[in-house]
Structures are given as C-alpha cells and as structure tokens.
Amino acid sequence: MQLRTPPRDAGDLPLEARSADEIGVAVIIPAYRQPGLLPEAILSVLEQQGPVLAAAIVVDDGCPEPETARTALDFAAAYPGRVFLLRRRNGGLSAARNTGIDFALSAFPACRALHFLDADNRLHPHVLARALAALDAAPPGIGWVYPDIDEFGGHAHWTTGGDFSVLQMLTCNYCDAGSVIRREMAEAGLRFDESMRDGFEDWDFWLSAAGRGWRGQHLPAAGFLYRRRPESMLAASERLRPLLLGQLQRKHAALLTPRRLLALEAEEAPRFALHTPDEGAVRLVVDPGTPGHSLTPAAARERLLAAMERPAAAQHPEMLCFTEAATLDLLAKAGVLHMVFWWAERLLREAQVVALEIVPTQEPVLALERPGRADGHVAGAPLLLARSQVLWEAAGDPSPRWIESLQDPQPQPITALLRLHLPMEAPVSSPIALRLLLLEVAALARLRRQRSALPAGWKQEYRTPRGRMAAEAQALAGLGPILPRLPQPGRREIGFLLPLFSFAGLEKVVLNQAALLRSRGWRTHLIVLGTGRIQRGADFTRSFDSVLLIDGLGENAVAWEGGYFGAGVSHFGGSAAARDVLGVLAGLDVVVNVHSLAGQALMAPLRRLGVRTFGGLHLIEHGPHGEPRGTPHVQAAYEHAYDGIMVISEQLRDWCVGAGIPPRKLHLVRNAPGYPTRPARVAAALAARQRHRHRPLQVLFLGRLDWQKGLDRLAEMISRGDAGLRWRIVGRAVLEEGPAPELGVPVEPPVFRPEELDELYAWADVLVVPSRFEGVPLVVLEAQRMGCAVIATDVGAVAEVIRDGEDGILVPHHQPEEAIIAGFVAALARLAADRAGLQAMGAAAAARVARAGWAQTMQDFLAHLDTLVPPEIPARPLPERRTMTHATDVPA
C-alpha cells in the first residue's frame, strides 16, 4: 500500500521521529475488521494542524484480518513516534479503548488530552486544536468537549448544541465517543466498561464521568465526521435498546435517586418561572420556597424565545406562575405551598390555566377542592399558573379568544380551579395575577412580531426537549414529577402517610410523634392519601412543616376477595397516578405509613429508591361478629416492603410475631397523653375531688359516637344505672352513618383544646370506655393523668395501661352483651359507694402516667432512626438570590 504524505506548511512541525514528551494529544483508534477504512482514520490524525502534536494509537483488538496490523505497522514505520500499534486478544471496543488509554498515560507524560476515534470515522484538520483550545478556556470541572454528529455515508447531520445537561444525558446519549477528554479524567481511573460488549459503552462512560462530577461542553463546528452505514454495531445495539437501557439504569442508579434528580433539575432545568411584581424579577425555581435564579423580565422572555427556537438546546421553565410574594408567603406559612404547585402541575396536563382560590374558614380545618371549571374565579385569583408553550402560542395568535375570556365571568373550560380552605379571617383576592399574565402575553406578542420568523437550523435534532427532560429522567426511576420541594441543608425529611386526619386518638399520636421528631431536627410532613379535607388544630403547626392532601386518584381501589388471609390488597400501586404519589414521597428520607391501605402498595418501590419505610400500627379492628380484621392483617401481607413497624403495645407486637412479621422489625413505641399539662393543674384536680367527695359521682364519656366505641352499651348503662349519677357525653359520630341510639343525656360537641380537655377530665370522677375494640386509647391516659379513674372493656391493649382494681377497672369482654353492660353498672355503683377507694385509684393512675412521656416512649425508636439516617452536619445557608440581566448569563 502506498502511503500519502500529509500536507505541510511553514507552521507545521517536522514529520521525523518525535520524542514522547512532544505528544500533546493521544488519539486511540480501536481496530477490528475494518482494514480498508483504517488508513483514512490514521491520516486524519496525522493531518491535524496546530501547535500541539497528536499521536495515533491503533489497538488491534484481535482482528482476524491481517491487513489491519500490516497497515498500522506501515504507518508506524513511516511516522515513527506518531503512529503506534498495540495488539491484544479480542475483548471488545471498551477493552481496546482502555488498552489505548493505559498506554497513552504511560508513554506520553506531556499528553494533555485523549481522543477516541473509531477506525471508520475521520477528523478535519483543526478538530484537535479546537478541542484543546476549548478545554484550556473551560473551567476545571469541564472534563471533555463533544462534537456535533456530521455524517458521511449517510446524509444526516445532527446538532448537540447547548449547555451540557446530565438530565438530558440520562435520557439520550448525545456525546459521541469521538470526543476529547482531559488527561485528568483518565488519570482519576475513568475507563470504559469492558463487560458492555453489546453497545452503549460510550453512553455509560459519559454517565460514569458525570457521576464523578465531570461535565462536558459542546464544541461547535468541531469537524468530526461520523460514518453511518445501514448495518453497524450501533444498529445492532439499537435492537437491544431496552436491555441495554436497563443495564445503564441499574449501573447508574446513583444518578437516578430522587434527590439527585431534583438537584439536577434545580441546577439545569428549573420547573417554574415565578412572576412576582413586588420582587421586580422573574425567579426560575424548582422549589417555589427557594430563591432560585433571578432574571429581569426581558431576559426571561429571551430565554423563553431560545427555548421555543431550540427546545433541545435551551431551557425555560415549562410552567409560569403569576402571583405576589405575599401569597407565596401565606401558602408557605400554612405549609401548603408545595401541595398547591404539585396539584397545579397535574391539572396543567389538561388545562391551559390553573387558578387558585383561597377561601377563609372559621373551623379548624384545611381543605383542597378541585371543582373543575374555574368559572368567574380567575379575575380575582391570587395565583395563576400556565404552561410556557401555551402562552407563547397565544402570543402568536392575533386574537387569542381563550386568553381574552379569562376576564369574563365564565372563562372557557380550559381553565381549572384549585379551591383552598384555610383558617383565616378574610378571603384573599387580587387582580394582580391575571394582569401579570395578560401583560406577559402582550410582551411575548411584541417579541414574536420582532422575530417574525424563527431561524431554521440546517442540522437535525434528536434529543429530548429540555422542557421535558427532568420528567423523562424521573420516569426512568419509576416516578411522576418529584414534589417540587428541595431538602433543607442539615435537616432530615420524614413523612407520615395517613388515609384521613381528624382529632381522633390515632391522629394525636401522630401529632406528638411528629412534634418530637421536629424538635430533634427533622422536617416533618403530613401526606393524606384519600381525602381532601382534614381537621387541623392549634398544635398542628407545632408538629408539621407541611401538609399534602391527595384524593380522587384511585386510591380507594381495593381487592377484598382473593386478598391475603382476608386482608384487602390495594390496586393503587399499578395505576398511573401512583407514580405521581411516589414522586411526592420519594424525596423523603423516611416514610411512616399509618393505616393507609393505598400506601401499602407504594412502600416496596420507595424502599428500592432508598427511602426508609416504616409502618405504624395502632389497633386490631373487629367486625360485627367479633372477627379480627384491619391494618395489622394488611401489614403482614406487605411486611417485606418495610424496614420496620411501630406498634403501640406488647399485645400488638405479639400478634404481629404470630402473623409472621420478624420480631427484629417490630419497634414498641408506647402511647403517652395526647397533650402536655402542668403538674399544678393535676394537683388541683386531685385536691378538688378530695374536697367534693360527698357529691354525686360524675361520669364522663369522651370520644366518637360510633359503634366501635360501644355507644349502644353506653345508652343501656345510663338507663339502668343509679339515677343520681351525673353524666356528660362529649363527642360526635365520625365513622358511622344513620341515627345514634337515644342516650337520655344531652350530647356536647367535641372539644380539642388542651385546656378544655383538662377541664373535662378534672370535672369527672370516672371515665367510661365501653369500646368493642381499641388499641391504647389516649383518652384513658389523659384521664388517668388528671386522677380520673377509668372503667373500660378489656379489649386490645387497654390492660397494659389499666391495672384492674388498682388504678382502674376492667370489664371482661369475652362474655354476653348483657354481662358487659351489667359489669359497667356494677363498677359505677361500687365506685359511687367507695369514695376512698375511688380517690386511691385516681391517685395511683395519676402517679403512673406522670412517669411516661413521648420523649421516653420514643427514645429507642429515635436512636434507631439516627442509625438508619444519620444526622448531617448543617450545611451553609442557601446563597442570596442572584440577579441575571442577560439571557446568556443563564445556564440552559
């Protein structure tokens, strides 16, 4: 074969033998079965122009064609010190490249960069000079420069322009192996995976580099030429694409963790553009509660224009929010900011605009409704969200009827409404949000007129649009959009998942557990999966940083027939909406599922994502025939999906062991009174009973007026008991439908404030608890603390907090109804006659409960959590908001 001598000019370095110290770039050319194309690749290296000398390292990967080695040897003889031949057993493309890397690092101490050139590709003469200049000018974190894909053989040309994005790389490989990398990347140990012989090894290489903190940079007009043939290794790889993608995802799972994805989204692709006139800027954020990046309105529009012109190369938030800072502050203080934005994002899948209406309520409730069409609420809505693409298209419409209709009493049905009920005095209404939206559409229309025709690039685009790349990357992890809430430096995140939330005992337990965790540095969140309305008392904000209400997504789909030993099995986990709820939970460190049946199906995927999962069990329920049922049975079916399970009693722990739950997973976290009270208040109640020991016995029933609580038994004991007893019945029906039995005593509404509860317990001499099933009722512990004796059916774990005859009375439950009622009547008569015994019983109960508190009962569990999720050293505070004045200042 006759070798062609590369052209020379006055600026060229001489072609005679060179020392290794002169080689600045090592070009590694794996060679296998392409001897006819290899000379073009080698010559394109020798023809490189510029001040830095390049060497071609041909790696014969066990090629069966003798011409491959012969060609390389001929070049090496003609260009000593410039062309090298390495021979090895066949190991695949990755092994060949790694052999070349190791040789280059050892042979060329002055080599600054490496380039990977396949034997069928070519380089224009200035590729390596341009690449080295770009690397020299780039920050140290830029590890490689990558070219466009300019084909020969085929006729397509593909752009890879725009700032480098790890999120985009997770869904699409746009860095060809024919890139130039810094020597430092290879010296740090980065190599191609030799086990990946079926393809995508270059995609894996770049993801590995990104995982180590390196980033790439696009090299415009690089001059790299890619040979495209209808049948090639790439074509074979594409046929195995699902298999290879699964391999990549498993290997780079660290890049797909929810927190990493959310951090990448905040860095590379902010989700929301917040237009707030009082700030005088547009903030680009993932989390609306964080500063994000600030732009002038004009710069934000230029960025939006760039995203419309080149959607795969430039990014602008997909959603625009129009509001005032005071509205965002109000939502943040109420703990519902992220809930509002999460729901608005879901609604924007179908609606053009989402309006938020804030309705005051005097009740201690929090509610979120989605009534559908917004009707006339848009004009006064304090917050509006719309998709950027929708507003851009409206700006190009000479008469956007639907935009104009937003000012009408009945906007078009493409507008959706979120109605938020908050405990507050006056409604929140403002015309500012709509005015901002209309002004923005007008400003975008002027910008579009100035740019009447969008420039058409001559190169094709194949990458994921940057507006969707975060969602597509999150989908790879099995998630819908991750809740737009960034973790707070130095704080761990824990969420309590419940099917409903009222002022019952179970909710009080959760409130106290959350409050203690919050006092220990955790950020606590309540997620209610199954209702859009909860009761929220004064102590709610002491317990929770945020709340998210989710309902109407199919969470009530349950299979009772064919379940697990009679327990229901949730169908929610297989639904599309479940991915959205997983996105809510996936950013947490710990999730505690407290009786949410729909949530059971979400625990296994959460655990695979690295979230620690715990169950919270409070009682075994019973059906109308006394048969056991309820959440503990469901928990046994899903036990494998949990790191641990909290139980409130030894009785419940023993049941779980008997149901096959490993004892090591069970954590005994006993209940304590639902609220704190002053010791002086307890002493005053004890003293008052002593002074008034001759008055008629005062008996209290406090709780839900439902069948479970034995309301029919209560009616019978009132009618049969001593007429001299003074009764008070406090509560309301929560779970039951239909008329309650006639009690013969006025029913007082429920009370929730600690001082009101203390007054009730201090008034009573005796509390009656005639329940059919219970866990460890807080009402018992709270009454005991105030020296009030308790008469209760011996159900659940009540016997663990009442010593029969010492600090209360237990009525056996496994007997006929008549005997149970008679037992309560007899116990009341006995205590009415024996006031000294009653006083001793109350004092013993008060002394016993005084020794217990939530800090004591949760001590071991908190230590366990610290082992699983160690506290972090507090990080530095978030930087101040950065003002950007030019679109080019913004990372795209």
TrEMBL record:
Annotated protein name in UniProt: Glycosyltransferase
Database matches in InterPro entries: Glyco_trans_2-like, Nucleotide-diphossugar_trans
Keyword Transferase in annotation: yes
Record key words, sorted: Glycosyltransferase, Transferase
Annotated spans, Disordered: 873-892
Pfam families: Glyco_trans_1_4, Glycos_transf_2
Keyword Glycosyltransferase: yes
Species of provenance: Belnapia mucosa
Domain Glycosyltransferase 2-like residues, every copy: 27-142
